[in-house]
Amino acid sequence: MKVTLRLPELPAQAILDEQDQSLITLIQTGLPLSATPYADLGKQLGMDEYEVIERLKRLTSENIIKRFGVVVRHHELGYHANAMTVWNIPDEIVSELGSCMGQFEFVTLCYRRPRRLPEWPYNLFTMIHGQDRDDVLANIRLLIERCGLDAIEHDVLFSTRRFKQRGAIYHKTNTIHAAS
Amino acid sequence: MHRANTDIEQFAKYQPDSLEKRLLNDFQHNFPLISRPFQKIAEKLNTSEEVIIDALAQLQEQGFISRVGAVFRANSVGASTLAAMAVPEHRLEEIAAMVSDYSEVNHNYQREHHFNLWFVLTASDEQVLNAVLDDIEHRSGIPVMYLPMLEDYHIDLGFDLKWT
């Protein structure tokens, strides 16, 4: 088997302690739907409710938790179309244009990723949802207009079939790192 | 394309009631981190804690919400990457099923492009991730293009649902 480093090094890393890792492992499938969910989680972890809440607040303020709340499934709620729209943006302006695109509510992901030349020239990925194809295409036109993307090469990859969708599952290890 | 249409038709247009609409739309971020979070939500929606818990459990049961909880920043916990393959049409079923079978794969879509199979892998660390990518390449005989996230520009406030 070939050994290749496929991922870039994370810039700054903060080690999550053992309790953080246990908590993350436990909440990835969601809060228990009970009157006192944090106390119930705490019981399983040997922590009190206050500690669970404080840890979740800290993980949120450190941006390890990006969002805490109801996680909806777009497809089931009538948003049947989604297009991964990819852009080939000069490196020196990719952050600026990415930040512009990332603020639109119909953009649910906005990531810079590496190009893979020659077959893949695109370095910015946006996921754009809509109720149907026309809705998605109208949103893309709006992005082009608002962020000044007329001269930027792009491609629209509609999904035609969903083979699998679920939340990410992180298995607990002793070497989980987190960007600080 | 036939399959895509079938998939869509399976899900009848859902008409949530007004309580469900507010639960789905108004609590996607800043969920209360307090002892009785559902009690707090109930107060805002003029109902009881019990009604809120039951409604959320039902929405979860029906598959309209995947969970109430945390969305982690990509690569802040564990390692993940987007990956794509250019699969010959006649092998798509087989390869897609093979890829979906890995517990590390959490999204797997067919898309309209020369690179027609797109999936997201998440694992505890890079070694596990690389081993799975290598395994997929080895078993399928098709190169995997891996595209890890380098920078995230998205401010995640959830998704504003428009009911029509």
Account of the protein in words:
The complex is a heterodimer of chains A (180) and B (164). By secondary structure, chain A is an alpha+beta fold. Chain A has helices at residues 18-27, 37-45, 49-61, 94-101, 133-147; strands spanning 13-15, 65-72, 81-88, 107-112, 124-130, 153-165, 177-179. In chain A, the strands form two sheets. A four-stranded antiparallel sheet of chain A has the order 4-5-3-6. The longest helix of chain A is centred in the C-terminal third of the chain and has 15 residues, at 133-147. Chain A is elongated, with a radius of gyration of 20 Å. Chain A starts with 12 loop residues before the first strand and ends with a strand. Residues 1-6, 9-13 and 172-180 of chain A have low confidence and may be disordered. Chain B has 164 residues and is of the alpha+beta class. Chain B has six helices and six strands, in the order ααααββαββαββ. Chain B has helices at 2-10, 18-26, 37-44, 49-61, 92-100, 126-140, and strands spanning 65-72, 79-85, 105-111, 117-123, 145-147, 151-152. Chain B has a four-stranded antiparallel sheet with strand order 3-4-2-5. In chain B, helix 3 (37-44) packs across helix 4 (49-61). Chain B is elongated and about 60 Å long. Mean pLDDT of chain B is 87; it is low at 1-12. The interface between A and B is large, with 91 and 97 residues. Strand 2 (65-72) of chain A pairs antiparallel with strand 1 of chain B, so a sheet runs across the interface.
Structure characteristics:
heterodimer, A: 180 residues, alpha+beta, 5 helices, disordered N terminus, B: 164 residues, 21% strand
Approximate helicity band of chain B:
25-40%
Return the string of H and E elements of chain A: EHHHEEHEEHEE
Mean pLDDT of chain A: 85
Q: What fraction strand of chain A?
A: 25-35%
Strand fraction of chain B equals 15-25%
CA-based gyration radius of chain A = 20 Å
- Which strand order does the major sheet of chain A show? 4-5-3-6
What class would the helix/strand composition of chain B place it in? Answer: alpha+beta
